[in-house]
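Weekly modeling sync, notes
Attendees: S.R. (lead), two postdocs, one rotation student

Agenda item 3: backlog of single-chain predictions. S.R. asked that every request posted to the team notebook include the full sequence so nobody has to chase files. The rotation student volunteered to paste the first one in as an example of the format we agreed on. Action items at the bottom.

Example entry:
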Amino acid sequence: MRINCIIPVYNVERFLPQCIDSVLNQSYKDFKIILINDCSPDGSLDICRKYEAEHPDKIVLIDKPVNEGVDKARFTGLDYVLTNSDLCGGILFLDSDDYLSQDAFRQLHQEMVSTGADVVEMRTQRVLGPIKRPVFSPVPAQVISRPRLMDDFYISFFGINLLTPGVTGRLYKTELLKSAALSPSEFKMGEDLMFIMRLFPCIEKLAIIDYPGYNYRIGGLTSRYNPTFWDDLKCQYAIKRAELVRHNYDKGFRPLAIELINIFYTSLQQRIYYLNETKERTCTWIKSELVDKELWKDVADYSLSEGKDIVHGDVEAIYAEACTRLRAGWKRRLIKKILTLFLK
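Predicted structure, as returned to the notebook:
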C-alpha cells in the first residue's frame, strides 16, 4: 500500500524541514509526499523546491497561484491523489508545522491491513520545544465497526468529546475518500470537523491504535479577536443540526444546543476582552443575536439551565455571565502569555 502524505504549506519556513524530514525518514518506505504551497509569503516555497529536487521520486510540489486557506489546499492535494491511479492506497494529512514519529506509517499500515479498517487513527502528542505531552483520549485502542460506530461515536461531532474532530493523524483508504466525494467547506475555522462529520457516515470500520505518531506543535499562543468565529460556528450549527435530522440521530440535539450556548459565550468573551468595546455596544450585539428565535429553538425546547437567560432575552444577565466566564479564565490567559514569551 502506498501512503500519500498531503502537506499544505503556508508561512512555515521555520518548521517545514522537520515536517518533511519526518516523512522521508519513515521506517515504512512506500510513500509519496504531496506538498501544496498555498501562495506562502515566506521562504517555504524555496524549501519545497529544494526537497522536490533532492527527492523527485518521493515528492510532488503543487504551487498554487492564489492563497485559499488550508481546507482548499488539502483538497487540492486530495484531488491530485484521486485523479492519479498510480497513487492508490492510503492518504494521510499532515500540517506543515507538525511532524510524525518515525514508525507512524508502518504502524498505521499494519493496522489497516490486519483489520481491514477504512480509517486508522493514531495518538497525538502536543509538542512545546523539547516537551511532549500525550493528548488525552477517553476512547481506548480498539476496532469499531458499524452500527456501533455510528450509534456510539457519531455524537463526537455534536458537543461530546469522544473521537477527535481533527483531519490529521489518521490514515484513510483512498477508495473511502473517493466514494465520499467531499468538497471544501469554505469556512475559516471548524473545517476539520466539517470534513470528518461528513465522512463519518461513509466509514464501515475505524481502528484506533496506541502509537503516539502525530506530533502537534502547540500554536495560536498569541490569541487575538477572531471576526469570523461566531458567524462560522453559527452556520456550522445549522449544518450539524441538519445532519442530525438526516441520520435520525436524536441524542445529538441536546449536547449540540449546549455547545451553541458555549460558543455564544466564547464569542462574547472575545468581544469584551479583545475589542475592548463599551458595554452598551456589546449589549446591542447580544440583542441582535437573540432576534433569531429559530437559532435558539433547541435551547428553549430542552429548557437548558445554561441558556435560560438567552431564552428569556435577559441581555444584562447574559453580559454578566460572559464577564464571569472571562474572569474565571484569567489563569489560562496568563499561561498563554508566559508561553508566548518563552517561545520567542
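Discussion: group reviewed the output briefly. The mean pLDDT is 93.
Action items: rotation student to repeat for the remaining queue; S.R. to check formatting next week.
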